[in-house]
Amino acid sequence: QREVANRRKNFLHLVSTALIKNHDLVVAEELRSKNLLRNHALAMSIADVGWRTLLGMLAYKADLYKCQFVTVNPRNTTQTCHDCGFVMGTESTQKLPLADRQWTCPRCGAYHIRDHNAAQNILAKGLTALVKQ
Ligand SMILES: [Zn+2]
Q1: How far, in Å, CA of 12 to CA of 29, rounded?
Q2: Which residues touch 123 (CB under 8 Å, ≥6 apart)?
Q3: Residues near 11 by beta carbon (within 8 Å), at least 6 away in sequence
Q4: What's the pLDDT tens digit per position in 34-91?
Q5: What is the pLDDT of residue 32?
Q6: Which of 90, 72, 92, 73 is nearest to 81 (CA)?
Q7: What is the whole-number distance in angstroms between the Cα of residue 105 and the centre of ligand 1?
Q8: Where is 47: in which H helix or E strand?
Q9: Residue 109 alpha carbon to ligand 1 centre in Å
Q10: Rounded Cα gap, residues 65 and 24, in angstroms
């Protein structure tokens, strides 16, 4: 058990160091605390611990390496079309289920890889937050 925890922690250190050292700006989603309390309580709480640990590592390493680190509200980052801003689940469309790894925007027809589209939205939110500072 402890070995798994250590291996996991080492992995988070590798990921956080690589992200911070190789970028001027890193943007991440805040913890989704409300969702965590709903379904899959155990699985989600494990994911939560990992994410919380990673966010903490990113924050202190950003200070060490003079990198900007910003967290943003995760609301609709996966459901919003990065090209036109349409939000799935509005205007009588269905929200994208987790199983949909790629999708086409019903408004503008843009084809998206789910995680890539979400990453673009997260970065855009981070840049907006920086401009407002
Ligand atoms: Zn669109």
Answers
A1: 16
A2: 27
A3: none
A4: 554 444 545 555 566 688 889 999 999 999 999 999 999 989 999 999 999 999 999 9
A5: 66
A6: 90
A7: 5
A8: helix 41-64
A9: 6
A10: 9
Ligand 1 centroid distance, CA of 80 (Å): 8
- Looking at residue 36, its pLDDT comes to 47
Give, in order, the Cα–Cα distances in Å from 64 to each of 11, 26, 57, 59, 85. Answer: 19, 14, 11, 9, 35
Residue with tokens 């991440």: 28
Q: How far is the CA of 84 from the centre of ligand 1 (A)?
A: 4
- Say if CB 78 and CB 96 are below 8 A apart: yes
**Closest by Cα among 38, 27, 7 to 124:** 27
Instruction: Give the model's pLDDT for residue 16.
Output: 94
Average pLDDT, the chain: 88
